């Protein structure tokens, strides 16, 4: 296996739901031969404290953030003792500070709390910031997601004709690469019979002939089928528009519904068009 030179970046916030994201990120980093980088975005209180007249407040908030990162690092090493892990607390809360701290990640991992069935759930501040300043795949790990599945658990990919240009190919590539690393079967859930999508799937399959592939074609209930598959899947891989990836996906939309109710980690493979340029950060 060729080691990935780009880190797996996990956003760490104060909520307990981040531990699942840290644990999954640690195992993924080991499987890729990559560094695990734990990041705590500078909380708004830290920026406010810097402008205050109380010098102790600034130090207290920064100390709490470092303590949070240390706990996350200890958990990552408990889950995956061989992982190479570092912690980063950006110097400020501006996006440029976060971008400088994380470098060029191969993927970012964020935790998501479980909430009510109607309103969905939101991402914490560090997760939102990470998803906003990157275009690489983003992995969402819900609090109750089962991220430790048996070796024969499949990688499930959702294919839709409405993906932005290039996203279908990237979803396929990410899914097949994940299946290859974990020696898992792959299940392709398709919104309908589409000759172009089928041709892309078969072309990718030819590059990975040793992977067992199952096609599952559904009608208008794609999200329901995907959620059902997550009961036994190790990973769900979806595509989405970049403008949808800030945790603002409308509850009820297929992608958002799948993310909110998935029982395994979910990958959002995003359109890499940013300021008119295609970003070459897909790994």
From TrEMBL:
InterPro entries from the UniProt entry: Rossmann-like_a/b/a_fold, UspA
Domain of life: Bacteria
Lineage of the species this protein comes from: Bacteria, Bacillati, Actinomycetota, Actinomycetes, Mycobacteriales
Organism: Fodinicola feengrottensis
Protein name: Universal stress protein
Domain (UspA): residue spans on this chain: 7-142
Stretches of the chain forming a coiled coil according to its record: none
Cross-referenced Pfam families: Usp
Classification via SUPFAM superfamilies: Adenine nucleotide alpha hydrolases-like
């Amino acid at each position: 296996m060729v080691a990935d030179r780009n880190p797996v970046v996990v956003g760490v916030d104060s909520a307990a739901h981040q531990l699942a994201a840290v644990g999954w990120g640690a195992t993924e980093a080991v499987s890729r031969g990559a560094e695990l980088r734990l990041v705590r975005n500078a909380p708004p209180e830290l920026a406010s404290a810097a402008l205050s007249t109380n010098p102790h407040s600034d130090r207290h908030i920064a100390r709490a953030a470092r303590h949070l990162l240390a706990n996350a690092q200890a958990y990552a090493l408990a889950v995956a003792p061989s992982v190479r892990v570092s912690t980063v607390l950006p110097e400020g809360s501006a996006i440029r500070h976060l971008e400088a701290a994380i470098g060029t990640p191969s993927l970012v991992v964020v935790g998501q709390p479980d909430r009510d069935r109607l309103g969905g759930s939101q991402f914490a501040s560090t997760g939102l910031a990470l998803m906003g300043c990157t275009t690489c795949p983003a992995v969402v790990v819900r609090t109750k997601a089962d991220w430790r599945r048996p070796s024969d658990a499949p990688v499930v990919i959702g294919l839709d004709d409405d993906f932005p240009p290039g996203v279908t190919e990237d979803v396929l590539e990410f899914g097949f690469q994940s299946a290859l690393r974990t020696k898992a079967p792959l299940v392709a859930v398709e919104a309908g019979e589409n000759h172009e999508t089928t041709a892309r799937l078969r072309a990718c399959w030819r590059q990975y002939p040793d992977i067992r592939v199952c096609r599952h074609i559904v009608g208008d209930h794609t999200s329901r089928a995907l959620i059902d598959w997550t009961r036994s899947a190790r990973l769900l891989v979806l595509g989405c528009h970049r403008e949808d990836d800030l945790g603002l996906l409308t509850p009820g939309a297929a992608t958002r519904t799948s993310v909110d109710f998935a029982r395994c980690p979910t990958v959002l493979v995003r359109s890499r068009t940013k300021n008119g340029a295609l970003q070459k950060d897909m790994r």
